[in-house]
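anyone else get weird line breaks when pasting these?? whatever heres mine. first is seq + tokens for prot A
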Amino acid sequence: MPEAYIVDAIRTPTGKKKGSLAGWHPADLGAIPIKAIVDRTGIDPNAVDDVVWGCVDAVGPQAGNIGRSAWLAAGYSEAIPGVTIDRQCGSSQQAIHFAAQGVMSGTQDLVIAGGVQNMNAIPISSAMYAGQALGFETPFSTSPAWKARYGDEEVNQIYAAEKIAATWGISRQDMEAFAVESNARAERAIDEGRFDSQIVPVGDFRMDETVRRGTTLEGLAGLKTVREGGLITAGVSSQISDGASAVLVASEQAVKAHGLKPRARIHHLTVRGDSPIFMLTAPIPATRHALEKTGLKLSDIDLVEINEAFASVVLAWAKELDADLSKVNVNGGAIALGHPLGATGAKLMTTLLYELERTGGRYGLQTMCEGGGLANVTIIERL
């Protein structure tokens, strides 16, 4: 089977709720990493076979195939197609999978994969059911077949995060200690310049503005829980945020033809499902499946990026996999760095690639929970 290579990866800084990117049109925001990746690699944009783009709840300014719109907003040829996909939080990670699969199939040679999300641009985007702003009920509440299978049990991320904490015996103190560490790691990464080369500025905005510097256990302990009697607070949850990211995936033929230098090889691609009620647990079976298929052990993986949708998600995954948290989200995660839904998959891949290069690691694994009880796993090998 032909190999698929990552040639470059880049992202915008992440804007916070009502922050520096709130006023940006998603097409214009998505165009920024697209243009940067074309400029940095020197590829002929007319040689791109497709633009595969992630975006969650593509309504309002994110509607109308935002992947295609972002390409055109970047000023490139109308002859190049684009497609937008929605696998919830894993949308741009799935975009990378589809790009790699196109290359591995031999039908494509150069694909730009990535995503964009302006969570400030549409109401209720943090719940990923923006249709409620248009007067619709949640997508599960009116299906007789769904109710026959799952009853009236709530389908909600906060509810799921609470269920995970209770099932895996994860305390509020456990989650708050994790959140303090996430912010501390992100602070260190920013202060040491670890993100500088992976970020393309948006005007004068050059660095993630989401990090809550000086986060303490005492401060987190004073926050109100989202649900009365619950454990989850804003301090142990990912942040509403805006951003865009892009990855260039190439075949061996394209690498030679365009004089490119691949930085990593796509080693494995997995997507698996789990309970839609627990919703956020699928990284556990997906990681197990990926390791079984590749013959790797988790100890063979040098670095892991797992999306910090909620602290309980990562801590449950770590318990089940007996993971070494010193190798997980070493530069902080979405609790500190934000979660611009459709952009996060390629954003995490960008961070993973640069950190493998910085540390000299060989294998990196990326996974993230996704609405509906899904999870992608991507394993890359640094070259």
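and prot B, same format (seq, then tokens)
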Amino acid sequence: MAKISRRLQEVLKKVEDRAYEPLEAIQLLKETATAKFPESAEAHIRLGIDPKYTDQQLRTTVTLPKGTGQTIRVAVLAKGEKVNEALTSGADIAGSEDLINDIQKGMLDFDCLIATPDMMPQVAKLGRLLGPKGLMPSPKGGTVTTDVAQAIQEFKAGKLEFRADRTGIVHVMFGKTAFSAEDLLLNLCALQECIDRNRPSGAKGRYWRSVYISATMGPSIPVDIYTLRETKITEAA
């Protein structure tokens, strides 16, 4: 069993055995973010779905109103003028077959990969490499598009792609612990609304099972699901 550090033992004492109101949970998250580096705020949401069935899979994007707090490196796979368009629109890397070759050789110096539809037959060969890292372009994720300029702008501004893992749990970073509690609440509410809005058609019974938030190196803090779902973004603004 892994040894728990003294720092984590101290912050664990601050978390009570109860579900917290969303803003209260976020304030506690900030208080327990005591690592020596800028920590992210993370949400871990267990849903009543079984992703082995196609009608119970959740894969979509959310635009966080206050951004991610991260510098997102965007790569674009396109042809001809679309490569120049991508670069002038703020892409960090752009190319065609040359970029595919670089990726096959292990070059993964990006956080988001956007591709135009005409590149997808060639992108398919990268599936084994990109899939496990969550970098494979997909229409559902908004990363397969002809409007590369808009896609680059959105992902740079705080758009995130996420999916439920094989156990039906969604893991999403919703900002940095340095954000104000109100800004983190705004982002968390946007995430909640997005998950509700994209409820899979095959999801039966209770959809939301549990919600925990934490700093990168902090303890898990249970959030009251019903209060979160009743908290409107306009109230947090």
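btw re prot B: The longest helix spans residues 181-197. The chain has two domains: 18-68+159-230, 74-157.
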